[in-house]
């Protein structure tokens, strides 16, 4: 594997995982793309009786996940999703990984092809702290959850919430649900305007489905 | 005097005729129908078993051995006196825990450790089959194993495990008898034998057949042994089981018991001495004709070809849980082969785990005590046991 498409940030408190797991109907079939060591898969398999599969690019991540008894394969979202047939999963999840893919649009399109629903969580590059680091610090943002320097980051396709909505519209997908988490990991509950989410949401979670052809 | 008596009188306990393990006999009423169209009957399967079959008969694990392996997976080998060939993985408290599972391992059809093969006595002639033995395939080996499992009163296997040629058998089991295989672990293997691997095998076979002591395959009757040819075959093959980094680390260009080259064709280098030793010890325990037959079986292996050219079709809608493992430095069965297999399994909707383990030990890594291999297989087996309701 030559690229780092699945290197997600090290996560101590992955509130988004709890949030995502709550969105999955029990008994469904799930593919977690970039599953790391399989935290979410374990949550789903144990708690919700889900047929949970994973893909992960890092050898160490896969080995640890398989040792936990999870069905995880070593692979790359940018190249391997194409091998899956249509409609084999109820949900395809991409948590904190889209920013590390080479071709986010293609990855998202494949997710919507092989799954009935796609769930995507990502760090919002439009968050006020990131904006202020760039504006006042004059350097690429470094935060607790985005701890890489510009020259060693696997994250090559950052986007803001507004950018992501733009991609969703471009590929003609339908937003079923959208949530944002503030920097304390709390859900921003109210249906506030986009600009508010885009400024105060540190992470976003979207549930998408295919638009009409 | 018959060959059988000659061998016995020579004081050699011939494992091919009189194996040091249980055997299952299949009489004229239970012939083995071979892919070639030939029929093998009667025939014998020599096998080992460990642990206890539970009341529900749901805890049976079948281990499939590789090219030069045998049924003695977890006990002292009766020929070499060494530990079983997979005692790192199989045994009390090990990943494949013989305190929990009923573990079976049988010698393959065409082998030389008591299952019917070219060194066995042909009932028609009273002499060893030699090259009159029909050419067998991996599917024939598996068909014979299925008959053994049935004769043991086992309906479904909790897990079928094997590396290399053993992995081929695992895949064949999953493709031919999906309803009988709850979980499958094909390690360091491929869904077909590559052109390069067929080429290596051909070199080995030609080395055996070029030895004048081979006597067109009738060496047992003639009282000769094609040891030189078989040793060369093993030496060439052994290189393919290792890797350049492993050879470099182990031997480099170091001399064997000398400080300077002798300007001769002695084994000046340690690596030469090592290979000669590998060749010489191999001929002590393996039948030359068996080597021809078993390598041939691997060459013919191509699961996709048996399913209209599409590998995914072989595993369509399978319920079997798979754990595929490859090793970074394995150039005989490279990761790309395992990846192709994983893609096919995914396309067929199978539940599959796949990990490429970082090791510089080449193809042989699957036989060694690699911590990551132990963690992977242990985790997979434990999860499969939970799913199968095999609690502690």
Supply the key terms:
heterodimer; A: 213 residues; alpha/beta; disordered N terminus; B: 392 residues; Rossmann fold; 8-stranded mixed sheet; two-stranded antiparallel ribbon; 12 helices; 12 strands; globular
Textual characterization of the structure:
The complex is a heterodimer of chains A (213) and B (392). By secondary structure, chain A is an alpha/beta fold. Chain A has one domain: 3-Layer(aba) Sandwich (Rossmann fold), CATH 3.40.50. Helices cover 33% and strands 22% of the residues of chain A. Chain A contains 8 helices and 7 strands; from the N terminus they run αβαβαβαβαβααβαβ. A 7-stranded mixed sheet of chain A has the order 3-2-1-4-5-7-6, with helices on both faces. In chain A, helix 1 packs parallel to helix 2. The termini of chain A are far apart. The N terminus of chain A is likely disordered. Chain B is of the alpha/beta class. Chain B folds into 2 domains: 276 residues, Alpha/Beta hydrolase fold, catalytic domain (Rossmann fold); 99 residues, Rna Polymerase Sigma Factor, Chain: A, CATH 1.10.1740.110. Chain B contains 12 helices and 12 strands. In chain B, strands 1-4-8-5-9-10-11-12 form an 8-stranded mixed sheet, sandwiched between helices. The longest helix of chain B has 18 residues. Chain B is globular and about 65 Å long. The interface between A and B is medium-sized, with 22 and 27 residues.
Briefly summarize what is shown:
The complex is a heterodimer of chains A (213) and B (392). Chain A has 213 residues and is α/β, with parallel strands linked by helices. Chain A is 33% helix and 22% strand.
CATH topology name of the largest domain in chain B: Rossmann fold
Q: Based on CA inertia axes, which overall geometry of chain B fits? A: globular
Number of strands of chain A: 7
- Which structural class fits the helix and strand makeup of chain A? alpha/beta
Beta percentage of chain B is 5-15%
* Largest interface between protein chains, with number of residues from each side: A-B, 22 and 27 residues
Question: Quick check: average pLDDT of chain B?
Answer: 94
């Amino acid at each position: 594997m030559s690229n780092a498409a699945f290197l997600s940030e090290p996560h101590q408190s992955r509130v988004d995982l709890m949030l995502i797991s709550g969105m999955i109907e029990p008994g469904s079939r799930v593919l977690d793309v970039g599953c790391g060591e399989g935290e979410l898969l374990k949550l789903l398999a144990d708690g919700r009786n889900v047929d949970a599969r994973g893909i992960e690019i890092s050898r160490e991540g896969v080995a640890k996940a398989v040792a936990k008894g999870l069905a995880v394969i070593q692979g790359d979202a940018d190249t391997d999703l194409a091998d899956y047939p249509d409609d084999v999963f109820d949900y395809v999840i991409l948590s904190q990984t889209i920013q590390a893919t080479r071709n986010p649009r293609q990855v998202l399109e494949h997710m919507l092809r092989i799954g009935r629903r796609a769930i995507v969580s990502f760090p919002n590059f439009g968050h006020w702290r990131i904006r202020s680091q760039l504006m006042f610090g004059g350097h690429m943002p470094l935060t607790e959850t985005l701890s890489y320097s510009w020259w060693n980051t696997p994250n090559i396709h950052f986007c803001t919430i507004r950018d992501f909505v733009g991609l969703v519209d471009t590929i003609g997908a339908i937003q079923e649900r959208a949530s944002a988490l503030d920097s304390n990991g709390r859900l921003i509950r109210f249906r506030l305007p986009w600009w508010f989410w885009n400024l105060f949401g540190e992470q976003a979670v979207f549930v998408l489905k295919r638009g009409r052809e | 005097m018959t060959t059988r008596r000659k061998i016995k009188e020579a004081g050699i306990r011939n494992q091919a005729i009189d194996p040091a393990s249980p055997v299952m006999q299949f009489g004229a009423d239970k012939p083995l129908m071979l892919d070639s169209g030939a029929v093998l009957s009667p025939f014998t399967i020599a096998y080992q078993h460990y642990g206890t079959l539970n009341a529900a008969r749901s805890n049976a694990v079948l281990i499939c051995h590789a090219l030069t392996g045998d049924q003695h997976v977890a006990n002292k080998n009766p020929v070499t006196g060494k530990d079983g060939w997979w005692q790192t993985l199989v045994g009390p408290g090990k990943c494949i825990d013989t305190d929990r599972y009923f573990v079976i391992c049988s010698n393959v059809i065409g082998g030389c450790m008591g299952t019917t093969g070219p060194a066995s006595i042909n009932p028609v002639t009273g002499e060893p089959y030699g090259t009159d033995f029909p050419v067998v395939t991996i599917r024939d080996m598996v068909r014979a194993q299925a008959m053994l499992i049935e004769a043991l009163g086992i309906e479904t296997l909790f897990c079928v495990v094997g590396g290399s040629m053993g992995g081929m058998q695992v895949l064949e089991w999953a493709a031919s008898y999906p309803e009988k295989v709850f979980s499958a672990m094909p390690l360091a293997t491929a869904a077909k034998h590559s052109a390069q691997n067929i080429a290596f095998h051909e070199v080995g076979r030609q080395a055996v057949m070029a030895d004048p002591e081979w006597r067109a395959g009738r060496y047992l009757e003639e009282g000769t042994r094609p040891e030189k040819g078989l040793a060369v075959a093993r030496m060439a093959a052994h290189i393919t089981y290792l890797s350049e980094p492993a050879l470099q680390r182990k031997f480099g260009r170091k001399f064997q018991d000398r400080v300077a080259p002798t300007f001769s064709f002695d084994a000046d280098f340690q690596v030469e001495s090592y290979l000669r030793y590998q060749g010489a010890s191999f001929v002590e325990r393996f039948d030359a004709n068996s080597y021809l037959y078993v390598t041939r079986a691997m060459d013919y292996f191509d699961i996709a070809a048996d399913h209209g050219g599409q590998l995914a079709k072989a595993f369509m809608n399978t319920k079997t849980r798979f754990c595929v493992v490859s090793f970074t430095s394995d150039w005989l069965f490279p990761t790309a082969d395992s990846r192709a297999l994983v893609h096919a399994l995914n396309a067929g909707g199978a539940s599959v785990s796949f990990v490429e383990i970082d090791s510089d030990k080449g193809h042989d890594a699957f036989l060694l005590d690699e911590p990551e291999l132990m963690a992977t297989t242990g985790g997979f087996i434990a999860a499969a046991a939970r799913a199968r309701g095999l609690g502690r």
